[in-house]
Structure formats: structure tokens, C-alpha cells
Amino acid sequence: MLKKMNLPNKLTMLRIVLVPIFIVFMCLPANLAWAKYVALGLFVIAAITDFVDGQISRKYDLVTNFGKIMDPLADKLLISAGFIMLTGLGVIPAYVTAIVILRDFFANSIRMFGADRNVTIAASLSGKIKTSAQLIGLVLALVNVAFFNSNTMGLFLTKSLEMGALELAVNVFMTVTIGLVVVSTIWSLVDYVIKFSKYIDVEK
Q: Fewer Cβ in 10 A, N or C end of the chain?
């Protein structure tokens, strides 16, 4: 099956394969500091494949039904794994992770109603901003863990004088980006509901 896939689909499958490996390295004991560097590297590679496979599929018209299904799934697996693991470490608040995951469940339900009506649900501006904010926020959070062993979002509010310039900058940008994640995720959900509520037929 792999030989028959085009390059974007292979990159999508690579992203899916990297998710459990990322989880394994995130679960290794805290005294193995190198494991967090590996986890960061794996996540960055996976995030890059998300950007690259989309660019290639659009540029060379390699969009397939397989890709339409698996690419969003790969994104959700990667992002959900990142938020869950970082929440487990205490880096990202649980409510942020809950908002991200619940939004995806709800959006998938709306997509199912759209698919039942043969309606193609294209990526919206709110969705693109949401995904970008999520990936950037997770990368910054992983950098915070790997390089500074920092496990608290917004730590700069109380300990900025104890931080180096780079650590302070990473913590500030991480906190701001995770705040943007909350706003853009809710915005994206409301956008979905407004645009596609007309396809939900409660009488059938």
C-alpha cells in the first residue's frame, strides 16, 4: 500500500507513525533529560510534514480521498498527544487541553453531517489560525521543557528576574500563544457551527 501512495500521503503517514514514538519519549523518566530533546525533535519534524504535505499536494494537484481523511486525523493525533503529554507534566493547564480536544470532537460531528449531504468542508481562516497557534504553542512549550526544565505556563509573571533572556522570551511567547490557542479554538468552533448548522437535520 505504501508504494502506491503519493508523497503527501507518505508524509501524512510518517506524521501518524511519529506520534506514538513522541509519546514514548515524553513518558521516559525526568532524569533522562535527552529524552525531551528527542521528543522536541520528533514533534518539530512531524509539524514540518504537516506544512510540507499540504504545500506539495496543492502545488502538484495530488489531493486524494485518502489524504482528505488521514491528513486531518494525523493533525489531531499529533496536537492532541502534545497537549495531553504537556498537561500531564503540568506545563499546559488542563482546561486548555479540554477545549482543544472537545472542539475537535464537536467539529468532527459537524463534518459528518456535512458529508451526509455531500458538502465539502474546506479549511477556514479560523481553522488555519487555530492549527498554527496550536503547533507553535506546543513547540514553544516543548522548548521550555527541554532546554529550561520549566513546567509552568506564565512563569515569567512571578519569576522573570530569575530567568535568562532566552528563557524569559520563550516563556512569554509560549504563554501568549497558548492564550491565542484558546481564543482561536473557540472562534473556530463557533465558525463551524454558524457555517454548517444548516446541514444538521434533527428530524432524520
A: C
